[in-house]
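Chapter review: from sequence to fold.
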Amino acid sequence: MEAKAVARRVPISPTKARRVVDEVRGLPVAQAQDVLAFAPQGASDQVLKLLNSAVANAGNNHNMDTRGLVISEAYVDEGPTMKRIRPRAQGRAYRIRKRSSHITLVVSDQEGED
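The token string follows.
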């Protein structure tokens, strides 16, 4: 059985979030929480919060045992980009792209993978 958690419009670029998500994909939940708690990347806080939400969804909504969960799917999609203007010399303007991402984590019990 699977439980899922989705964070939308997270104000972090998808490239930076994918670095963190690739580290924890396929790991048991307890080990992934340890990795995320001590990871220096800024996106690790958001991914840890999302992982805890997915574990809570598994326990509360699906009555799954939260000790044997594994991250079966983890992916980052690109969210909306806010466009801003940076003034430059001689009346020019450069565009600033403030990117966001949609992060999805799916946890499942190990019996489903066998």
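Two observations follow directly from the output. The beta strands are 2-10, 69-78, 82-87, 93-98, 101-109. The radius of gyration is 17 Å.
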